[in-house]
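re the bet — no i am not wrong, look at it urself. input seq straight from the record:
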Amino acid sequence: MKKKMIALVAGLTMTASAVCCAMISPEGMAISGVAPGSSVSDATAKLGNPQFAGDKIYFSNGIVIERSDYNPNLVEEIETYTAGNATPGGLQVGMPEASITATYGAPDKLDRDYDDTEYTYYSTDYFKKLEFKVVGGNIVKIKCKLRD
């Protein structure tokens, strides 16, 4: 009887954890077709010539790319504060908060502060993460990056 109870509790725990985790493929972790881990040269081919290039590369459409410290041709992080730059799921800055969970499900991590909320999703291979910052009920920032 005791073994059956332990098995039941373990099964319910595993079921609950499976329901809580979002499953986003690595290909779903991108903004405007540019994903962390891709090359900077591929990113500029998709986004056009940058307005400014240093440690961070700024594009006229509002995309900011951060290069890897170890490989300057590797996109480590891509973010936007500007509408018009969508994730593969179709989300972009300015959309309502409810569209995040409607598109990607429950987040892997949810941080609520006094004036903002951050939704974090991890890729199924655990190498990338996708973050949405929400203020006043709307998405104000989207960021994709290689995991820390």
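see?? The domain at 22-146 is CATH 2.60.460 (protein yfey like fold). told u. also Confidence is low (pLDDT under 50) at residues 12-19. so pay up
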